[in-house]
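Q: Please design a sequence for this.
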């Protein structure tokens, strides 16, 4: 079993989890546009590629799959998912599985406004969201929402361009700033579908933040949900976290997973305020919060590899070590 991680970046831990699950029966291949990406150093094979929007990128990934006899491709980057997903058939025709959901699922998760609509269709709580500065101003003037609020890219990744204006003057400045940042960053390509409405203004929810890892099998059926309380964030990623026994939140995770019908893991962000839950974001990939699930007793890689071999997986092997906090820490690796 040979597994290729694209946009491998800093996800050393995830490559290690899959390497352990594979044992000696396969190899881990990492691809990234940077030869010094830390995850490249822990892979059995490392390949440097162009950026995800380059014309030759897809052919490069396909060539790596051919040369390294890849069985499974796992993308670790939001921006890459819409690039690879439409070409699923090309890979599957030669026996390569993409652990990437259908394009419709990618659209719901990647487009933050579509995520809001998805929540509304499920009658789930979600922050009030506006596609224009004028709409947000009216909502503020009427008291529908209040400062501080959130201004962010509609098609965003890694908390790029996130602002929290506290008054009307800051709102106007923040909106202009985020619009400018989107147009000048890698997000401009992702936002070209509706460039005039590429920035969202959202109600800010104050409360306890949770991260859910929602695992679906290859048919889109939800099989596991791990609920973690986020204790600290750093650079847009969960930095400290603890597994919590929250049956109501776990049930919401199953509800989201069944409705979404994704493949593999979804990283779901939710807030709890005054006893009500609000879904903030959906990321249809392994997120930066997944290692806290693994450390707490989950082993999603083992389940995925079993399904790759058409084997049933025994989820009784999973543990749930509640209320044990874990934290990421810096380390050095020779790249």
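A: Design:
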């Amino acid at each position: 079993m040979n597994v290729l991680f694209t946009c491998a970046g800093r996800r050393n831990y995830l490559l290690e989890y899959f390497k352990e699950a594979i044992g000696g029966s396969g190899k881990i291949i990492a691809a990234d546009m940077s030869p010094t990406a830390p995850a490249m150093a822990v892979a059995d094979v490392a390949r440097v590629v162009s950026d995800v929007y380059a014309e030759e990128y897809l052919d490069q990934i396909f060539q790596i799959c051919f040369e390294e006899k890849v069985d499974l491709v796992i993308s670790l980057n939001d921006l890459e998912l819409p690039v690879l997903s439409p070409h699923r058939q090309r890979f599957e025709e030669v026996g390569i599985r993409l652990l990437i959901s259908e394009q419709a699922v990618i659209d719901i998760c990647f487009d933050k406004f579509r995520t809001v609509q998805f929540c509304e269709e499920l009658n789930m709580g979600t922050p009030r969201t506006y596609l224009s500065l004028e709409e947000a101003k009216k909502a503020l003037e009427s008291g529908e929402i209040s400062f501080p609020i959130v201004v962010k890219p509609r098609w965003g990744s890694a908390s790029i361009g996130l602002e929290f204006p506290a008054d009307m003057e800051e709102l106007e400045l923040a909106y202009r700033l985020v619009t400018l940042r989107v147009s000048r960053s890698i997000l401009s390509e992702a936002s070209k579908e509706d460039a005039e409405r590429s920035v969202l203004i959202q109600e800010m929810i104050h409360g306890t933040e949770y991260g859910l890892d929602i695992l679906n099998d290859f048919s889109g059926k939800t099989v596991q949900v791990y609920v973690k309380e986020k204790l600290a964030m750093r650079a847009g990623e969960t930095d400290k976290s603890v597994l919590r026994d929250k049956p109501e939140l776990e049930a919401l995770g199953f509800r989201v997973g069944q409705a979404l019908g994704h493949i593999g893991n979804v990283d779901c962000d939710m807030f709890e305020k005054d006893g009500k839950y609000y879904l903030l974001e959906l990321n249809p990939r392994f997120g930066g919060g997944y290692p806290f699930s693994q450390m707490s007793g989950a082993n999603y890689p083992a389940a995925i590899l079993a399904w790759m071999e058409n084997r049933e997986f025994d989820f009784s092997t999973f543990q749930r070590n509640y209320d044990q906090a874990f934290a990421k820490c810096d380390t050095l690796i020779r790249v």
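Q: Thanks. Anything notable?
A: The chain is about 35% helix and 25% strand. The chain has three domains: 3-100, 128-203, 208-327.
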